[in-house]
Design a protein that fits this description.
By secondary structure, this protein is of the alpha+beta class. The protein is built from three helices and three strands; from the N terminus they run αββααβ. It has a single domain, classed as 2-Layer Sandwich (GMP Synthetase, Chain A, domain 3), CATH 3.30.300.20. β1 and β2 form a beta hairpin. The mean pLDDT is about 95.
């Protein structure tokens, strides 16, 4: 799942080298933490958070068959 989120985020930003994707397990949940450069945070979140919501919807639909819930958190460096 990290690869999918990383691919989507790298396609959106200008500074692809600054993108860092980490995952942390929290019981039955997995938190995917996305760190991007400060200049690119708006491109990943989008107007009114629509791009971030879309990324979360894609992750949710891909992981629907699994019994693990993924949470995507977007941070800047």
């Amino acid at each position: 799942m990290e690869e999918l989120v990383g691919y989507i985020v790298r396609c959106l930003v200008d500074n692809q080298d600054a993108v860092e994707i980490k995952s942390e397990r929290d019981g039955s949940d997995i938190n995917i933490i996305v760190n991007v450069a400060e200049d690119d945070i708006g491109k990943v979140i989008g107007k009114n958070g629509r791009i971030a919501q879309s990324i979360r919807a894609i992750v949710k639909s891909v992981s629907a068959k699994e019994k693990i819930r993924y949470n995507v958190k977007i941070n800047n460096k």
